[in-house]
């Protein structure tokens, strides 16, 4: 699996309405004890993240996360931009995730997510 495939599997886990499919996509790429943090939640471990994703899917049925940039990586840290797209094609502002990888770069150990563009200097 390439690094891009790994990140795309992560995005697909967020996009699936089926709990079994989300689990099947996330578990092979999510390291034991990995954490996910964004402005709304801190999820420790796969079960907490899967529960959070289930809540997002319940609030926004059919919504998906689409990667909108290349995957950039150095020293085991990646960044990529994404967009939360509703079934009608509308979307929220683009976000940015920073993902930390295990030494083999085959599993995610931590994700820090940001919503929307950076504010310009005043």
Describe it.
The protein has 122 residues and is of the alpha+beta class. The protein is built from 3 helices and 7 strands; from the N terminus they run ααββαβββββ. The longest helix has 14 residues, at 46-59. It is globular and about 35 Å long. The model has no long low-confidence stretch (mean pLDDT 96).
Task: Label this structure with key terms.
Nuclear Transport Factor 2, Chain: A; 36% strand; 7 strands; 3 helices; 122 residues; 29% helix; seven-stranded mixed β-sheet; single chain; alpha+beta
Write the layout of secondary structure elements.
Elements: H1 3-15, H2 19-26, E1 30-38, E2 41-44, H3 46-59, E3 64-67, E4 72-74, E5 77-85, E6 95-101, E7 108-115
Parallel strand pairs: 1-7
Antiparallel strand pairs: 1-2, 3-5, 4-5, 5-6, 6-7
Helix pairs in contact: 1-2
Silhouette:
globular
Q: Helices and strands, in N-to-C order?
A: HHEEHEEEEE
* Structure summary, number of beta strands: 7
Low-pLDDT runs of 5+ residues are none
* Terminal Cα span: 43 Å
Largest sheet: 7 strands, mixed
Fraction of residues in helices? 25-40%
Describe the structure concisely for a colleague.
The chain is an alpha+beta fold and 122 residues long.
């Amino acid at each position: 699996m390439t690094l891009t495939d790994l990140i795309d599997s992560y995005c697909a886990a967020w996009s699936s309405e089926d709990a079994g499919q989300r689990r099947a996509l996330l578990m092979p790429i999510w390291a034991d004890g990995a954490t996910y943090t964004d402005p709304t939640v801190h999820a420790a471990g796969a079960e907490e993240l899967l529960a959070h994703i289930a809540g997002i899917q319940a609030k926004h049925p059919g919504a998906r996360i689409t990667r909108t940039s290349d995957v950039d990586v150095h020293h085991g840290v990646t960044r990529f931009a994404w967009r939360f797209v509703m079934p009608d094609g509308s979307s929220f502002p683009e976000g940015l995730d920073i993902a930390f990888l295990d030494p083999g770069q085959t599993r995610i150990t931590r994700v820090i997510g940001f919503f929307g563009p950076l504010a310009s200097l005043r």
